[in-house]
Amino acid sequence: MAETLLVYDPVAPCYNEPQSARSALDTLAGKTIGFIDNSKPNFHYLVDDLAELLTTRYGVAQVIKRRKPSASQPAAEAVMKELVETCDAVITGSGDWGSCTSWSVHDSVETVNRGKVALTVCSTSFIGLGKAQQKALGYPELPIALVPHPFGIRKRDELRGIAEECVGEIDRLLRESAGRDASATAQAAAPSLRARFVEAPGDLDE
After folding, report:
1. Residue 62: its H or E element
2. In 3D, which of 85, 91, 40, 84 has the Cα closest to residue 65?
3. Measured between alpha carbons, how far is 69 from 83 in angstroms, rounded to an integer?
4. Which among 10, 19, 24, 161 is least buried, having the fewest CB atoms inside 10 angstroms?
5. Residues in contact with 108: Cβ distance below 8 Å, sequence separation at least 6, in sequence order
6. pLDDT tops 60 at residue 184
7. CA-CA-CA-CA torsion for 149, 155, 161, 166, nearest 10 degrees?
8. Collapsing DSSP states into helix, strand and coil, what is residue 31?
9. DSSP 39
C-alpha cells in the first residue's frame, strides 16, 4: 500500500446563507447616527466633517462617535450595546486596507444582526474585499460608501472635500432598501469546516 501524508488543508471560509434584504431609514431628519471609528489615519477627521454635514444638511438630531483602540479587532461589546440601543443607524470605517476593511464590515454586520441599519465606509481600492467579506458573513447587500484611495495620507482640507462628496451617498444608502433578486444572488456554499486534515499521496513532493 502506498504511503500517505496527513496534510493541513486551509480551505476558504464558508459562506453563510444570504440574509433578508437590508432595512433602511425613511429619513435622516430627527435620527441619531452612530460612528464606529477604527482609528485608521484621517478617519476621525472624516467622521467630524460627516457629523457636521449630516446635522446641518440632513437634520440628524444627534451623532454619537466611538473609537476603537485598533482597526484589527471588533468593536467592544459595550460600544455595540450602547450604539444599538441609542442609534437609528451606525456607520463603520474606515476600510482602506486588509484587516481594517474586514473588521469594519464585521461591525456593520453585527449592528444589522442586532436590528439596526448599518453602512461601511471603504476606500475605492478595497471595495472588492468589503463586498467579499459581506457575502461571507451572509449580508451581500449591505451598503458601502466609497472614499478615494489612498485615504490615510490626505491633507486636512482634502478630507473636507471628500466628506462633501460622500455625505450625499451616505444619505441615499441609509434610506435605500435593497430587494434581493434570488436569481441574481450567488448560491451560498454548503457549510463546511474552515480547515481540515486530509490524506495525500506520500510522493506529493515529486
Report:
1. strand 62-67
2. 91
3. 17
4. 10
5. 90, 92, 118, 119, 120, 134, 139, 142
6. no
7. 40
8. coil
9. -
Residues 112-147 pLDDT 10s: 999 999 999 999 999 999 999 999 999 999 999 999
pTM above 0.70, yes or no: yes
Please give the backbone phi and psi of residue 144, each rounded to the nearest 5 degrees, phi first.
-130, 125
Q: Helices marked H in 26-177 — which ranges?
A: 43-58, 77-86, 98-113, 127-136, 156-175
Q: Cell triple for residue 15?
A: 459562506
Name every residue whose Cβ is closer than 8 Å to that of residue 64 and which is 6 or more positions away in sequence: 32, 33, 34, 35, 82, 83, 86, 87
Residue type, position 163, single letter = A
Q: How many CB atoms lie within 10 A of CB 170?
A: 22
Site of grid cell 434581493: 180
Name, in order, each residue with C-beta under 8 angstroms of 185's C-beta and a sequence gap of 6 or more.
18, 140
Phi, psi (rounded to 5 degrees) for 192 = -155, 165
Going by their DSSP bridges, the two strands 144-147 and 117-123 should be labelled as: parallel
